[in-house]
Amino acid sequence: MKVAVLDINGKDTGRKAELSKDVFAIEPNNHAVYLDVKQYLANQRQGTHKAKERAEITGSTRKIKKQKGTGTARAGSIKSGLFKGGGRMFGPRPRNYGFKLNKNVKRLARKSALSIKANDKSIVVLEDFNFDAPKTKNFVDVLKALEIDNKKSLFVLGDSNNNVYLSSRNLKGSEVITSSELSTYKIMNANKVVVLEGALEGIESNLSK
């Protein structure tokens, strides 16, 4: 499939970019997308939550009343979770929320996400560009020219470009990554995916394996 290549002023350059059908036009696998996004979000969790349990509470271990004859429930240590100030019963413990996902499933998920965006006409191909120095205003001008300044956008570069990255860093709704950093979550989270010409080859070679 062919897509028009735009310049940073939002004008058609007259050139067409060929998007691989094996990457941008497959039948999307929604379950693979779900699993990959779920793994990405799980990996963001620190898992450092912790509550003190009965054995970790400072307090007496004396039995607070006799076992029988009080007419109330049996009770042991004051550190029981039944009492105020006692330990937490079955409280959270530090854990790793990550889980393994087959690399073929992850590759299928990224191709499915790109195909969904391509089908929705949410992929823009932009000619390679650079800034003389990091300046947020320059990046905002590009967003306005592409009419995506009020939308979440993901810019995919072929190689790391410090000036472009630093120019976008203060903008909450935009993110700049390289083709090797592409993830299903970032693709699906963006309203528009702006792919630079130099990134197409890297994306297709990574996902066509």
Automatic annotation (TrEMBL):
InterPro entries: Ribosomal_uL4, Ribosomal_uL4-like, Ribosomal_uL4_dom_sf. SUPFAM superfamilies: Ribosomal protein L4 (SSF52166). Residues 45-75 are annotated as: Disordered. GO terms for molecular function: rRNA binding; structural constituent of ribosome. The keyword Transmembrane does not apply. Keywords: Ribonucleoprotein, Ribosomal protein, RNA-binding, rRNA-binding. GO terms for biological process: translation. Belongs to the universal ribosomal protein uL4 family. This is Large ribosomal subunit protein uL4. HAMAP family: Ribosomal_uL4_B. Part of the 50S ribosomal subunit. One of the primary rRNA binding proteins, this protein initially binds near the 5'-end of the 23S rRNA. It is important during the early stages of 50S assembly. It makes multiple contacts with different domains of the 23S rRNA in the assembled 50S subunit and ribosome. One of its GO terms (cellular component) is ribonucleoprotein complex.
